Amino acid sequence: MSEDEFYQRAEAVKLDTLSDVNDIGKPWRYEEDGLTVTRTSPWSPPGCHPVGCGLKLYVDDGGRLVRVEGDENNPVTQGRLCPRCLALKDYIYNPARLLHPMKRDPKERGNADAWERITWDEAFDIIKDEYDRITAAYGRESIVVFAGTGREGGTFAPYGTMCFGTPNFCYTQSGYACYTPRLAAIAYIAGTTYPEWDYAGALPGRWEDERYELTECLVVWGKAPLESNPDGFFGHAVIDAMRRGTRLIVIDPRVNWLATRADIHLQLRAGTDTALGMAWLNVIINEDLYDHDFVEYWCYGFDQLAERVQEMPPEKAAEICGVPVEDICAAARMYAQAKPAAIQWGLAADQKTDGMQNGQVTVDLMAITGNLDVPGGQILPGAGAGHNESGFGFEKGVGDELQKKMIGLEQYPAYCMIILNAHADLMLHALETGDPYPIKMGFYAGNNLMSCTSMEPQRWHDAIVKSLEFCIGFDTFMNPSIEASCDIFLPLSTVAEREGTVFTHYAPCTVTAGFMHKAIEVGETMTDFELCYELGRRLRPEVWEDFASAKEFMEALRLGKKEGGAYFDKVSQNVVCQIPVEYYKYERGQMRQDGQPGFATPTGRVELWSTAFNQFGDDPLPYYLEPEFGPADPELMKEYPFILTTGARTTAFFHSEHRQIAYLRELNPDPIVEINPQVALDLGIADGQWVRLRSPFGECVEKARVTETVDEKTVHAQHAWWFPEEDGSEPNLYGNFRSNINNLLPNDHYGKLGFGAPNKCLVCGIDPLVENYDTDMNLIWEKFGKLV
Ligand SMILES: Nc1nc2c(c(=O)[nH]1)N[C@H]1C(S)=C(S)[C@@H](COP(=O)(O)OP(=O)(O)OC[C@H]3O[C@@H](n4cnc5c(=O)[nH]c(N)nc54)[C@H](O)[C@@H]3O)O[C@H]1N2
Ligand SMILES: Nc1nc2c(c(=O)[nH]1)N[C@H]1C(S)=C(S)[C@@H](COP(=O)(O)OP(=O)(O)OC[C@H]3O[C@@H](n4cnc5c(=O)[nH]c(N)nc54)[C@H](O)[C@@H]3O)O[C@H]1N2
Ligand code: SF4
Ligand SMILES: [Mo]
């Protein structure tokens, strides 16, 4: 995409009208009780998805943050905060936080004591020398940017495109098994992007707004929004809606808080959602519960879909999923008969080999029930609102020739092109083997792959340490990946130390646009925008000549304007703005660039028979894949008799972060695995006892919580554990591989289009241990509790 096109698209998202939209609450900064209060809308770091819960930062005369409170003026969050923002002070002033650049001799990688403080200038000089040397010898494609989840750094494509000029910006979770399979499913099937549940977030009158219709039935599917506030969605909106009468269906192998309040809880076997979705389609079609008008005028391939789902009668799904057939039918009827109804589909949809097909059946359900683009159903962005930041600077910074070298582009174009990302599993192979070409330099942009992002983390560790001649970490704290593999460390600013923006739902389906205001200064830190700009213009001045400052770069990329920061300064005073939403856009030609009614697909309709899937060589209709490592292999089940699901979020932590925050660690001191009481009895495991978890790929230890939240077939293990209080040097590496559930999970088991991974549905065995690895909370308080 050219820059001109980019700015046009930014206009399509109505970002240029922000200042006129609305002006909510008190001024952005004011005095109260002798303190300066700054209202802000945080994103990251600390890591969070782009929710931007309204936050007030209280700063004393000495410029120190002394208190945080929720900002009641935010129209969606209304003052509510989770523990991580409440503990912000303990994160910012934590004694383990790193506030200056550092270098280490590459021979000393893995030695936690070998770091040496340097200046920013020295850091930039070293990086420039290494960049010039490595790109001259191996080309820019030999650089990989390790990307993570949707925090600012994690999705910051300009690091790849404009700063280093490499096509290899790479999110390193196998099969890109987070969000993008869902996003790709709707993009290929309906030519739009992630459909969020309409919780009236964008309407000035919120729930009472006359344009809104209360969602009669909400399906929370493989998602735990109260704990995760995922992808820019404020989880408590579910409770707000329930209080108004919304009925709930929860589809989850675990009993989570919402499941206990649901009308129907389908407690299915992990990894079998696609079968369940096909059975819902079967019931809805066979019982004639679908929206005839929508199907007739706006869908393509209905008859083929109707025929395909005959292969999955509810009785068959009941057997596969382990759920009573009458519950499957009752839930499908309840969803289809409610007007409007919505589905909140979560991460579990992606984390299976047939993740794309799971996405496909979900979009099909939303479509044939007529819930797309309607009040109280699923909101969709209008034409051109792709606002694809991942393309920003690609032409100028990378160029067509180098783009073709993106790892995985040839084999998995449906994956690599949708989000301009190198393929995770093929990147691992390139690091291990030098095929198709050597990877020599790395940069961690909000990624801790050895503790969290990546499966078989020892493989990633060994490949990176062996392959990379030079590697840079940019973070708030030291972490195992940086400790093991970096030669330079650069310090990162937190939300309280920075300016910026936060668009809920990653921009296209934004309901609120928030602005971050700088309230304090700590150490010598930079933001992702600042580092990208400062480093980029030193490495490649020709790419950066159009931007006068890091702030102007931020203004251009996020707001589609270039006014030296003046436009940002003006609109950011709003702190938070609602972005107008429109419904039934497909009827009025607002979903397609050419202004014709319908959807932006080749047929102009929602493609239940997908021409895109067909073109990419996959089945155009949904199909269910039985998990490869599961009951389909009875021999395997003898050794590994349980189904392991992993990574359901807790409010205490964001992935591998926050283990140094004593208040948060106190909430969850040890890595927890949930085991059913009957299983505990059979295996002789007591509540609180440590156990070994093992799979054909590896093992780790976690602490048993004996609980009925899981049934007798299922165990659930927390992910992303490491121990910042322990020795950081190799081989201990902060205990990184001891309780790392990703030791048990494989790479290379994705679907036909390159997406999906069995990270929430693998087999595992459990052995009780006599050893006790309990965290000493006194040590945590001593080490991390006294703020500096
Ligand atoms: N506090 C906190 N918030 C976070 C994060 C964090 O680390 N901490 N991470 C962020 C990120 S990157 C993401 S992607 C989101 C994810 O957030 P969500 O989409 O909410 O996903 P999870 O919390 O992983 O899991 C949600 C539910 O899926 C269930 N589940 C497990 N396996 C299956 C299955 O096979 N089928 C079904 N139907 N359900 C299953 C789990 O039991 C759990 O209740 O959260 C984001 N928000
Ligand atoms: N078993 C299992 N594994 C999983 C999951 C699961 O459900 N089960 N979930 C997976 C999912 S969905 C995801 S998205 C990945 C997440 O994986 P990652 O996104 O890699 O998350 P972290 O490992 O926490 O590493 C992120 C690092 O980024 C830093 N950081 C935070 N904010 C910023 C920022 O704004 N800029 C920069 N430069 N750095 C920042 C943090 O301090 C931290 O050290 O994990 C995956 N791993
Ligand atoms: S979800 Fe929690 S950490 Fe994220 S912005 Fe809201 S209160 Fe802060
Ligand atoms: Mo994620």
From TrEMBL:
Its cofactor is Mo-bis(molybdopterin guanine dinucleotide). Coiled coil: none annotated. One of its GO terms (molecular function) is iron-sulfur cluster binding. InterPro entries: Asp_de-COase-like_dom_sf, MopB_CT_Acetylene-hydratase, MoPterin_dinucl-bd_dom, Mopterin_OxRdtase, Mopterin_OxRdtase_4Fe-4S_dom, Mopterin_OxRdtase_prok_CS, Prok_Mopterin_Oxidored. Residues 38-96 form the 4Fe-4S Mo/W bis-MGD-type domain. It holds the Pfam family Molybdop_Fe4S4. It comes from the Bacteria. Keywords: Iron, Iron-sulfur, Metal-binding, Molybdenum, Oxidoreductase. Belongs to the prokaryotic molybdopterin-containing oxidoreductase family. This is Dehydrogenase. It comes from Gordonibacter pamelaeae.
